[in-house]
Amino acid sequence: LKGGATKDIPFARAESRTRVYAVASGKGGVGKSTVTVNLAVALSARGLRVGVVDADVYGFSVPRMLGVTGRPTRVADMIMPPVAQGVKVISVGMFVDGNTPVVWRGPMLHRALEQFLADVYWGDELDVLLLDLPPGTGDVAISSAQLIPTAEIIVITTPQTAAAEVAERAGAIALQTRQKVVGVVENMAGLVLPDGTRVDVFGTGGGEQVAASLSRLTGTQVPLLGSIPLDPDVREAGDVGLPVVLRDPHSPAAQALSTVADHL
Ligand code: ADP
Asked: Residues lining ligand 1, judged by CB closer than 6 Å?
């Protein structure tokens, strides 16, 4: 891959022990950020040192979902990231004014991501860095692969066939970037009503479909890491800034998310 890093990125060094996961999806609104923040706090609760880079330039929502109140500060030539729920967080949203839309082009996105990776003070070596990518197969996904070639990809999809097809394309980028796809997470699976009936709002099978297709494409076993039910509490937990694995750890959604974290 051309267009590598111009700065020293600790995560890209051969001796780095940080596992970097790039969380990808085919399209927006499938719960990529929700899964990212829940995995982050689940891993942090296990005593791991966790950082999150919210690189979803068009839909940054990680700060709200993690309840980040602080702002990044500058110390000498480093950027100190705010910490929320034990997780260090940096987001594109912290560098724009209010709710202004981000209109950056590829090269600017590349530089911003590079800065997040090289100039942010992540402290003692992180155990895990999660990268919330924008949906699709755009510039940021390519940049992240160039900047951290060892980053492994987690693909998020809904159970819907149409969504799964788009998610397969997002995962297939790994073939070109030679990255490993760690697995697929199906989100927004069956909604369980108070009377116990299950409604498959977005159909079924999308997660299995993406896992099977990426296994075929990459020639390696890409597992389905978990299936997270559709649950209003998941949405609400995100809205109040306390991810469901912390807010309601015994709920089926939180349990499913914790199981995904076990696989990482
Ligand atoms: P993306 O990052 O893929 O754009 P988000 O994580 O922002 O998606 O999720 C989109 C919306 O769906 C958010 O309002 C979020 O709270 C909600 N959501 C995500 N996963 C679930 C779920 N399992 N059950 C209910 N709501 C969910």
From this structure: 25, 28-34, 59, 61, 187-188, 228, 230-231, 234-235, 238, 253
- Model confidence pLDDT, tens digit, residues 43-79: 999 999 999 999 988 778 999 999 998 999 999 989 9
State the CATH number of the domain containing residue 59: 3.40.50.300
The reply to whether 76 falls in a domain is yes
5 found inside a domain: no
- Could you list the residues known to form a binding site for ATP, using ranges: 26-33
Model ipTM value: 0.99
Q: How far is the CA of 185 from the centre of ligand 1 (A)?
A: 13
Q: Which domain holds residue 46?
A: 11-262
Q: What is the pLDDT of residues 179-224, one digit of tens each?
A: 999 999 999 999 999 999 999 999 999 999 999 999 999 999 999 9
Q: Whose CA is nearest to atom 6 of ligand 1?
A: 31
Number of domains comprising the chain: 1
- Nearest 5°: the CA angle 214, 188, 153 is 35
Q: pTM of the prediction? A: 0.95
**What's the CA-to-centroid distance between 235 and ligand 1, angstroms?**
6
Is 80 contained in some domain? Answer: yes
What separation in Å is there between the alpha carbon of 178 and the centre of ligand 1? 29
Of the chain, the end-to-end C-alpha distance in Å amounts to 26
**Torsion angle in degrees (nearest 10) through CA of 104, 108, 114, 115:** -80
Tell which atom from ligand 1 comes closest to the C-alpha of 236.
Answer: 16
> Two tokens at 206?
């999308």
Instruction: State the amino acid at position 205 in one-letter form.
Output: G
| Domain contains 117 | yes
Q: How far is the CA of 15 from the centre of ligand 1 (A)?
A: 35
Tokens 């267009």 belong to which residue?
3
Please give the distance of CA 226 from its chain centroid, rounded to a whole number: 15
| Mutation choice for ligand 1 from 235, 244, 247, 258, CB with most ligand atoms inside 8 A | 235
